[in-house]
Amino acid sequence: MPLSNKHLLGLQGVSKEDINLILDTAKTFREVLERPIKKVPTLQGKTIVNLFYESSTRTRISFELAEKRLSADTVNFAVSTSSVNKGESLKDTIRNIEAMKIDMVVIRHSAAGTPLYLTKVCDASIINAGDGIHEHPTQALLDMYSIRERAGKLKGLKICIVGDIAHSRVALSNVFGLITMGAKVSVCGPATMIPRRIDELGVNVIHDIDEAIQENDILNVLRIQLERKAGANFPSLREYATYFGITQDRLERNRKDILILHPGPINRGIEISSEVADGSDQIILTQVTNGVAVRMAVLYLLGTQN
Amino acid sequence: MKVILKDINLFHPAQNIDEKNTSVLLEDGKISKRGELSKDDIKDAKVFELKGKYVVPGFFDMHVHFREPGREDEETVISGSNSAANGGFTGVACMPNTEPAIDSAEIINFIKKQAKNHLVDVYPIAAATVGRKGKVLSPMAELGDAGAVAVSDDGVAIKSASILRRVLEYSKMYNIPVIEHCEDESLAGGAMNEGVNSTLLGLPPLPSVAEDLTVNRDILLAEYTGWKVHIAHISTKNAVRMVREAKQRGLNITAEATPHHFTLTDDLLKSYNTNLKMNPPLRTGKDVAEIIEGLKDGTIDCIASDHAPHSIEEKEQEFQNAPNGIIGLETEIGLTLSELYHKKILGLKEIVERLSVNPRKILNIPLPKFDLGETANFTILDLDLIWTVDATQFKSKSKNSPFDKRLLTGKSISTINNGKMFFEGEMITI
């Protein structure tokens, strides 16, 4: 069964069937990653460009690894080394790359909607690796994969996304995907970091982290972006850590055997304490491994459509 | 030259003229006869058969951007005027956010020189502060003498309450109206209206309260200084309510709305089409409903396009990076007739008031009259013509319109002014 879309631009509007297909396919690739030789010939002869207009370490490496393990030919394009600095427009860049006969583009860009724009100016399959504060679908898929792997299901689970929701593409993709899969989603953070009218997406809004811990089965803790100045968005990192940080003490106080995800990179001692990050309950590093498998699944399903 | 407009409906509500199925004789661009015409009148005349068409006092758009000087690749005074004539306007007022800004008599004179001898009368609006920077008052007396019909820092609001206060006090001495782009600077900077759609699309949000706060500030300062403020491109429900209330209190506040703000909502932005990006941004259905209510009850005095040309290269980029603004002169009348007249929100009388009478009244420009001997200054409307917008046919140098390919009912089919007639895409000297 193929995916119903040629591109993966976000999880808004992606069906339950498609999400299940990706997650099930990822499971088979996850097994490949446990083999001594972690490579399959599935995308031999396909060319993929990783077009990163914004710095990224783990997402870029994860995609690159996924591509290599599927035997695709990959080209990396990073802004600092490209002709973008010479003033070339995005449209010309993508047209030029396409003229070199590529099959897929993995794009990360600081402006929301850029992946959609690419679908209009070129014929390749487009995979969104994060666009502005809009979506980051593969991150949400790997979060869902990791939850499903641990909890055995998504439907009916109570999942809370904690942190700077307003400036997070991970949060929005998780909201779309998890709601489609039948989970009960809430978000928790200071009111200044919750986007307006997010409740209309079917999300419960919480401002008390203890309540969030008590009421949920899983917390997905987002990074507080240090570059986002404290002072205007929230009073200080210290106040954030005190009132929203996940510490062992706080977990114990609230009962609780709770599964904690974090998309990384972690600010230890701010949104999550080292004790919790490194503790036995966390699946943070498993998430990273799962990320490769999920991206292999997406690349495979989109790359073998025709 | 003799021109006959035959079998027209002559409609000038301000002069109480409503004559059906009549004719007008023009000689050298002036009205020389109305009503039944003799054989002698018809002799040697160019006759336009216009049965059922309405001749109204030439429409006036008090908010356009002609990009000259500075961005002549996007629009010039001439191309903008051609666009206005094609859209059904015989007069426009152009905003000062050019490069350099219209803040000196020299630039006013330059624009007037460019516009000379055109069908369309172009009235410059000068910057309220030097360079539109909000620090130093522009030389308003001199600018007014040179021909500026108003002052505005459009593109942004006049920076601070203290400078706006001085602008109002000073402009009042010389009877110069102040036009405000209402947007609180500290809340500005977003790419679309803040709401559920900005949350869904991940675009930087621009809250409607940014407009409301400045409208409120401006109303209070207009009251305090005893002068007037015209609110440009009103777009929020609260702003309309505040203007309504200010009028009820007898304050000298006027307002305009654009066709896109009474036609479109931010639901459309999921396409990330940069031709839907403008400032103020498209708002919600509730805001649109209040604007329509405001147009109906007279809270909103006029319709203006905020015609803002941008090159393809500028618009064809990431949504966040694309500039604000769309062109509007050539779709304005079609949208007004389709959305307001045919939906029975405004009658033709109210439409003529909002597109011809009121903008001139606000800017102290005399209203064209239909009396014998007057220069013929007409817009000729086919109220029922069904047509499809085709951006490639625009006279504007730019094509950034979200209304391309839209089906509209009602159109201006001709404009006449200054001894010239625009008809079927051609400019004729009459």
CATH overall fold name of the largest domain in chain B: TIM Barrel
Question: How would you name the oligomeric state of the polypeptide chains in this document?
Answer: heterodimer
**What class do helices, strands and sheet pairing of chain A give?**
alpha/beta
Proportion of strand residues of chain A? 5-15%
What's the CATH architecture name of the largest domain in chain B?
Answer: Alpha-Beta Barrel
Note the total helix count of chain A: 11
The main β sheet of chain A shows up as:
5 strands, parallel
Termini of chain A, distance in Å? 12 Å
Largest sheet of chain B: 9 strands, mixed
Average pLDDT figure of chain A: 91
Number of strands of chain A: 9
Determine the structural class of chain B based on helices, strands and strand pairing: alpha/beta
**Content of β-strand of chain B:** 15-25%
Mean pLDDT of chain B: 97
Explained architecture:
The complex is a heterodimer of chains A (306) and B (430). A five-stranded parallel beta sheet of chain A has the order 7-6-5-8-9, with helices on both faces. In chain A, strands 2-1-3-4 form a four-stranded parallel beta sheet, sandwiched between helices. Chain A has two domains: 16-135 and 289-303, 3-Layer(aba) Sandwich (Rossmann fold), CATH 3.40.50; 137-287, Rossmann fold (3-Layer(aba) Sandwich), CATH 3.40.50. In chain A, helix 1 (16-32) packs across helix 11, helix 2 packs across helix 11 and helix 5 (137-151) crosses helix 6 (169-180). Chain A has 306 residues and is an alpha/beta fold. Chain A is built from eleven helices and nine strands. Chain B is α/β, with parallel strands linked by helices. Chain B folds into two domains: 2-55 and 371-429, Urease, subunit C, domain 1, CATH 2.30.40.10; 58-363, Metal-dependent hydrolases (TIM Barrel), CATH 3.20.20. In chain B, the strands form four sheets. In chain B, strands 1, 2, 3, 4, 5, 16, 17, 18 and 19 form a nine-stranded mixed beta sheet that branches. A five-stranded parallel beta sheet of chain B has the order 9-10-13-14-15. A three-stranded parallel beta sheet of chain B has the order 6-7-8. The longest helix of chain B is centred in the middle third of the chain and has 17 residues, at 209-225. The A-B interface holds A 12, 89-91, 109-114, 116-117, 131-135, 169, 172, 195-198, 200-201 and B 194-196, 198-205, 207, 271-272, 313, 316-321.
